[in-house]
Amino acid sequence: MSRLDIFINRMVSQRACIDFALTETAQMNGPVFELGLGNGRTYDHLRDGAGEQTVFVFERAVASNPASTPPDDMIILGDVMETLPQALERFGPAARFIHADLGGHNLEKNDKFARAISPLVEPLLAVGGIMVSSDQMYFDHLREMTLPEGAVDGRCFVYQRMA
Predict the structure, then answer these.
(1) Distance between CA atoms of residues 26 and 24, nearest Å
(2) How far is it, in rounded angstroms, from Cα 67 to Cα 116?
(3) Which of 6, 91, 130, 139 is the most buried (most CB within 10 A)?
(4) Up-side HSE of residue 127: CA atoms within 13 Å toward CB?
(5) Do residues 135 and 157 touch, judged by C-beta distance below 8 A?
(6) How does pLDDT run across 12-23, given as a tens digit for each residue?
(7) Where are the alpha helices (DSSP H) in 25-106?
(8) 32: pLDDT confidence band, cut at 50, 70 and 90?
(9) Which residues lie across from 158 on neighbouring strands?
(10) How far apart are CA 54 and CA 43, in angstroms?
(11) How would you list the strands of the sheet with 75-77, edge to edge?
């Protein structure tokens, strides 16, 4: 499979999983968290689906396209290893949806990072809330869900807090 095919599968899967999570959590209150802004493509999609005033973005430094840059009061700047615990103090276990696309091209490094942030992400999710990640995560109390139609196995992972 070419790198282009891998990229396309990731984008198609990301959209299918984000749309699924937004639909499944639409009746829930609580914020949506976007972990990693990058150029802002997924933030723009989340903003369209969830509303600009519900999507908080966690990022080290903003470098997104101006058309897909969140308002300053919706950006939580800093290292997620520090800002996720701060978000738990601020919001509690209230997030209805968390999306993370934080990995790079080094799969071993991605897995190590996923193992490090999983225990920081898990307590932020409300009961019934959904986590979508580009990498496999390691949760104690979230169950992995079947991928929605249109998602490619191994390109996205979906988890839900049941209790």
Answers:
(1) 6
(2) 32
(3) 130
(4) 2
(5) yes
(6) 999 999 999 999
(7) 41-50, 80-91
(8) very high
(9) 132
(10) 11
(11) 75-77, 55-59, 32-35, 95-100, 125-133, 157-161, 142-144
